[in-house]
Amino acid sequence: MKPYQGTTVYFRLLDLSDAEFILNLRLDPKNSVNLSPTDSSLDKQISWMQDYKAREAKGQEFYYIIHRRDKGLPIGTIRIYDFDIRKSSFSWGSWILNKDKTISAALESCIFIFDKGFYEFGFYHNHGNIVKTNTKVIRFHKKLGIEIVDEDERLVYNSYPRQIYEQNRDRLLELIRLSAETG
To answer: How do the domains of the chain map onto residue ranges?
Structure first.
């Protein structure tokens, strides 16, 4: 199956020219509360991205910029990483959407990343964690069918088998279609 390409958004691998956009997303007070600490230095952001590009070249992780289809405007980021071949599992994160997002951008970016992990890369499981205070994202994950399997003082840990995703995928695509129709 070809990975989902987006209805109201599209995805492209980041390049170094995206450093300022990413840094601004990560430093925005609305976003930073649920992210790992970010240095405000553009030079450090570029350095991190250069290291990332080396990991990308080795097939270890992939970091995407999310754009609106109608305006071509960058609206967010999403990354797939932590490939565990022994467990046939992947993780994803660095998921940030700004105020210019489309109504279905969150759902579309999830389908894109799950299709990448399950179909393009051939994994059978998704594992991850979410900062406990990020209750909006935890609720969103639960609506997708992602199960919370553990927690500690700071994080909840989740699990999403490919089989469950496949049971939910058509319903999720229908939600995107309906939201595109209603605007």
So the answer is: 9-182
> What confidence score (pLDDT) does residue 150 get?
97
Which residues, other chains included, contact 55 with Cβ-Cβ below 8 Å and sequence gap of 6+? 61, 81
The encoded tokens of residue 141 equal 């994950």
CB 145 within 8 A of CB 138: no
How far is it, in rounded angstroms, from Cα 38 to Cα 90? 24
Residue with tokens 């300022």: 20
Q: Domain 9-182 belongs to what topology? A: Aminopeptidase (3.40.630)
β-strand partners of 91: 81
Q: Average pLDDT, stretch 134-160? A: 93
Which tokens go with 39? 């240095």
Query: Which residue is it, tokens 């994994």?
Result: 123
Q: Could you give the 3-state DSSP secondary structure of residue 93?
A: strand
Mention every residue, 6+ apart, whose C-beta is less than 8 A from residue 62. 13, 56, 79, 80, 81, 116
Q: Which residue blocks in the chain are alpha helix, DSSP H?
A: 19-27, 29-32, 42-57, 105-115, 135-144, 162-182
**Tens of pLDDT, residues 15-63:** 999 999 999 999 987 876 677 778 889 999 999 999 999 999 999 999 9
- The pTM of this model reads 0.92
Comparing CA positions, the residue from 59, 63, 52, 55 lying closest to residue 96 is 63
